[in-house]
Amino acid sequence: MKKRLFSLALASVMALSLAGCGGSKEAATEAETKAETEQTAEDTSAKAEDTTAQEETKAESEAASEAVSESAGGTLIVGFDQDFPPMGFMGDNGEYTGFDLELAKEVAERLGLEYTAQPIAWDSKDMELEAGNIDCIWNGFTMTGREDDYTWSEPYMANTQVFVVAKDSGIASQADLAGKIVECQVDSSAEAALKEVPDLTATFKQLLTTADYNSAFMDLEQGAVDAIAMDVIVAGYQIQQRNADFIILEDSLSAEEYGVGFKKGNTELRDKVQATLEEMAADGTLKSVSEKWFGEDVTTIGK
């Protein structure tokens, strides 16, 4: 009897022991699974943090590269009227050229800027500048009357507004323009100058405007108009190139100066361009370019 009781007791102890071992294994498995899950989450989080850090580092590197690029270079996009020789126009080789554009290109090269000649409609020049489509207006651009509208370089050339007529027209002075048809470019300095002399324009038969001076000279050649009001520099060049029998009246409309116009407040670019123009005046480059286009030095910087 005692032996039987002992055996039953032993069996109970073994059963409890086995149950205890099973519970321990299950607990261990659950703990291990939980630990593995937590480790996986930590690894995933760490990987995400590494990826974010790499992306941030890449972005910072790209920004730094852009900053270095901007500090090392940039652009100089020059707005100009492509029908305004000799200041800016399309040459026989299909490329834009002219006195002003040649100066602008040289300035850009010395400043390490990428030069672009951007033709614009002259009456849209302010919109192009405000929109950032161009960096400056450099095209026989008259400062007079526009002093407060732009940030200007110092004047680099003197100019006057004059009348061009056919040599055999019988027109020898402004008084002879009474009853005549006069034409000028729209939104030009000549148009502005004519608005300042209403007593004179009131004597005209008609005052017309045209998109460009090439069209105006064609009108004069065909007898559609009697006179053109325009810049004396451009007038002289046009007459020479066309080998036309035209003359420039001695009495001028107004005296003025040419400058490079920048968006109001853009003193940084203005100062760089101005310093370079002064450098070019000092080393004779301005004189050389002027003599190439006009046969003489008509520039005023440093004089």
UniProtKB/TrEMBL annotation:
Its main location: other. Residues 75-297 form the Solute-binding protein family 3/N-terminal domain. Keywords: Signal. It is found in: Cell envelope. Residues 24-70 are annotated as: Disordered. GO terms for cellular component: cell envelope. Residues 27-37, 44-61 have a biased composition (Basic and acidic residues). Pfam families: SBP_bac_3. Residues 1-19 form the signal peptide. InterPro entries: SBP_3_CS, Solute-binding_3/MltF_N. Belongs to the bacterial solute-binding protein 3 family. This is Polar amino acid ABC transporter substrate-binding protein. It comes from Enterocloster bolteae 90A9.
